[in-house]
Structure formats: structure tokens, C-alpha cells
Amino acid sequence: xxxxxxxxxxxxxxxxxxxxxxxxxxxxxxxxxxxxxxxxxxxxxxxxxxxxxxxxxxxxxxxxxxxxxxxxxxxxxxxxxxxxxxxxxxxxxxxxxxxxxxxxxxxxxxxx
Length: 112
Ligand code: 5GP
Ligand code: ZN
Description:
Blueprint: H1 4-10, E1 17-20, E2 24-28, E3 36-42, H2 57-73, E4 80-83, E5 99-103
Antiparallel strand pairs: 1-2, 2-3, 3-5, 4-5
This protein binds guanosine-5'-monophosphate (5GP) and zinc ion.
């Protein structure tokens, strides 16, 4: 499958990893939009939030257990934002489920 984030999972494309376990990988966004900008992804290929179902939602729950630990390790003590763009209207550019962690500054009070 020609998927950028699957290639990052496989090590075919390098990334700056900040967290990894058997199911989840987190790495720094190549084009950060905040002082801290991390992408958290399942190692298995799920195309987007639209692809989450009863068979694969356990990894999503696991991702959300990982996110506070990653945020704490990054020193995001004053808060952070978690975003997942789904589909064309949301400008999803990589069709492998990912959650952005954004923080390290006062973020905009609008999301759209
Ligand atoms: P989306 O727009 O799909 O929500 O987010 C995709 C994110 O992936 C973007 O923030 C973009 O900067 C990031 N990205 C794209 N290609 C690469 C890459 O090769 N390495 C890393 N670390 N991030 C990437
Ligand atoms: Zn993939």
C-alpha cells in the first residue's frame, strides 16, 4: 500500500519518534504549526476517523491513553489541542488515521 504513514511505521521513511509501542507510533510533524506538534498514529492502517469501527476501536482508545502521557513528556502542562482531520472538507492530506497534538503556545480560540 502506498501510504506515507505506513512507510514511517515500517521505517522506510525516517521520522523523529517521541513514543512507540506495539500498536502506536508518535512522531514530530515535519511542518509544525505550533512549538509542539506531534502526530499520533495506529501502526495498523486505518484511513481516517471514518474507518473506525468496533473491530479496530481498541487502538483508538489506546491512542487516547497515550496522548496525555506524550503531552506530559513534552511539558504541555498548560494545555494542548488534539485534532483529527477527516476527509476533504477537513483538508485531510494523509489518508492514515492520525491525531495531531498541538501545544506549547496559546492556540487560536477558533477551530474552523
Ligand atoms: P492532515 O493534513 O492529514 O491532517 O495532517 C497530515 C500531517 O502530516 C501534516 O501536518 C503534515 O505536515 C504531516 N506530514 C506530511 N508528510 C510528513 C512526513 O513525511 N513526515 C512527518 N513527520 N510529517 C509529515
Ligand atoms: Zn497507512
